[in-house]
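Comment thread on ticket #2218

A.B. wrote:
> Attaching the input chain for the structure job we discussed in standup.
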Amino acid sequence: MAIEGKADITRLRREFLAEIKNHAGLPCLFDHLEGVAFFVKNRRFQIVFANRNFFSRLGFIEEYEVVGKVDFELFPKPLAEKFRRDDESVLATGTPMPQMVELFLSRQGLPDWFVTNKVPVLDASGKPAGVMGTVQRYDHSSGLASGDAVIARAVKLLLDRPDGIRSLAELAESLGIAYRSFDRRFKQQTGLTPKQFLGRSRIQLACERLRDTPDSIAEIAIDLGFCDQSALTSQFRNRMGLTPLRYRRQFGR
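C.D. wrote:
> Ran it. Output below, let me know if you need it in another format.
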């Protein structure tokens, strides 16, 4: 029997989920997706399900070691605060947050970009009862997986040469788009404004120079478009959870 409309699809799915009773097999599927970390949280923001890619990235051996924990027990405070804000938004609005491109710091001190998708988990009444999502490494050499070619090109430019971009308004103009529209479309596609994205790209490049060069922090700050060393230090600490000097001492070569 053919499915004719949205109401029929919704009814079909509800009937199926009611019949199987146990949904635990669904998260297990994500153990077989290479490079994809999967999680489910309840309304108290505790991990309920996590696939192997999720917990092994954090240094754990078994899933039970992360179940019941919240992000503040698993991640540096700046990251945990960001994750909590996103989760609260999904729970409060019931609106998915797809294709969020973010910069995280690995345990080896290497900054890397990831794409996060979050959607609400609905209870029997249709209200958000939790959040589930996926996280996977963002390969910016292949471009943003987006139907918006202009924003995909902008993302690549911001990732490849953040030190060469002095004005986001000029960048928008070079892409043939009004800045207000550029700002709105960029946030729709990445979860960040162009300004936020550029700031994170500059932090990534700052990490590279702090690790690999003897350049002073003041020199790095000016070269990357920060007004001074203090501005770089403030943004670096807020983003990465440590100062540029501490980062260099810990991870510099």
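A.B. wrote:
> Thanks. Noting for the ticket: Residues 149-251 form a domain with the Arc Repressor Mutant, subunit A fold (CATH 1.10.10.60).
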